[in-house]
Amino acid sequence: MNILMVHPHDLYSSLEPWTVRIKKLAIEFINRGHSVKLVYFPLDPQNANGEFSDNGIQIIALDRRLGLPRIIRNILRMTKLASWADQIHFQKCYYYAALPALIASLLKNKPVHYDWDDWETKIFYYSNPKQRIVGEFLDIYEKLIPGVVDTVSVSSNHLRKRALSLGVTQEKIVPAPVGADLEEFNPRAIEEHRGKVKKKYGISHYLVLYVGQLHGAQYAELFIHTASLILRSRKDVIFMVIGEGYRLGELKELTRALGMVEHFIFTGHVPHSEIPQYLADADVCVACFEENDITKCKSPLKIVEYLACGKAIVASNVGEVRNMVGGVGVLAKPGDASSLAEGIMVLLGNKKLRESLGKGAVERSQRKYRWTVTAENILNAYNLAVNLK
Predict the structure, then answer these.
(1) Closest alpha carbon to 277 in 378, 198, 342
(2) How confident is the model at residue 389 (pLDDT cuts 50, 70, 90)?
(3) Which CATH code is given to the segment(s) 187-367?
């Protein structure tokens, strides 16, 4: 099968790391003998309109800037690519990527699949509350897309319910939570890295780790307040935040204001391929969230990678998190620093419990939360869409 995949963001920028999903799916499809062309939209317009090969995938860069001439050029280019494709797949509802994909599928009568992994309108308003016109446009578009595509994959049960409420029939929806790359993330792979990160940063205490981009709706602030509670009763803990984003300076200032600088490390951006090195030395890994429309829709990548590496996990009990962590980690009340602190303290004080939960986490990852499973579900949707055509 020839698969044309489309993502509205930059595959190669650390500022938009959420492109991991489409890259991993593309590799899974290649491994199954399919041919893939992947269209993306770089942040730097100077990188637009390029074409090259990466891991057996033909990569095509288009221009995301506003302007009718650019949209027309993108539609023409996408339509040409659609002539080659048996299946069109796009992720997220941003018009400059989704609209050309939809028009191309219509003009060439090709089945089109929508990979719905976040409630984009809610995320947009979280960071841009005053941009009502853009937000309303995005909301309309996000509501229309599920009803005009052939099939939909959803990363969470909450998005499944939204798709049903928008008129998508049950048989056209497939589950597609995030997965871990089990070649990169597994207990054996991280074992070879053990001790490197603690040595690099001079850490002799327990290490509690948070991975996440420091943009809006990522909740690192909640992690910092949780750390402040733990440090009231024990000082043998170092807290580490891996990631970058526009809130980094603000979060560093918060740790200074709370008097925790000597117990906190902000690594900045770490390449995704190097994350296992950090997980190797983490005694507890944290995924903390508030409960809102954004978090209800997520299946967080960090959690499945924690699971795959057999780490002791404390996570906020919201949305898909219970399905992911329940029984193999500690669930905390969403948005509650005290509950998170209690869970972390329990794990820090019980090595046998950490090891026991870690073994269960690995088993769950291998059974359910890996990219091979997600890719197989989406391929089933493709086959359904082709038959419908």
Answers:
(1) 198
(2) low
(3) 3.40.50.2000
